[in-house]
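Kindly review both lines to help learners:
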Amino acid sequence: INYTYLTASSGAGFVAGKSESNVGLHANGDISGFTYNAAVDFQFGKKFENHGEEIKAKGYAALLGLGYQWDWAGLRFAGAYGSGGDLEEKKEKSFDTFLGNDQHYTLVYEYRVASAAGTVNTGISNTTYLNLDLDVAPMKDLKASLDGYIIRASKTIGDVSKDAGCEIDGRVS
């Protein structure tokens, strides 16, 4: 269980008047080689003021992942959802990512290009992922992984496609 409180005045990319909270319930572990991870986060508070009117934060995100780990290889599947915005009735439903600029899901989509949330560095905001990962460790000091993502916008306006694309990330260490 975690709680984060973020408040900001203007400057450094923040909007004056932000006073937002995030409550998260997270779990992960393994049982005889089967792995799991799950998370749900809820946001509330004041996201910003728009011409003197307070806009309330109402974002949420969820993750569910399952996998199996052998001695030298692992296979994982996950799905994640970050709520998208439709400013209505003074509520902003986009999930705000409070995390740093390091990889949590995809690398390019979350931090290098304008995402479905409309700008860069938005993390899972307004995004739905399906993810398949393969990890191998053929030797003690050699590990490699291949991560594939199908990415969709959680919300769109008008007849804009929800298809945000796909991404394949590889790592060797």
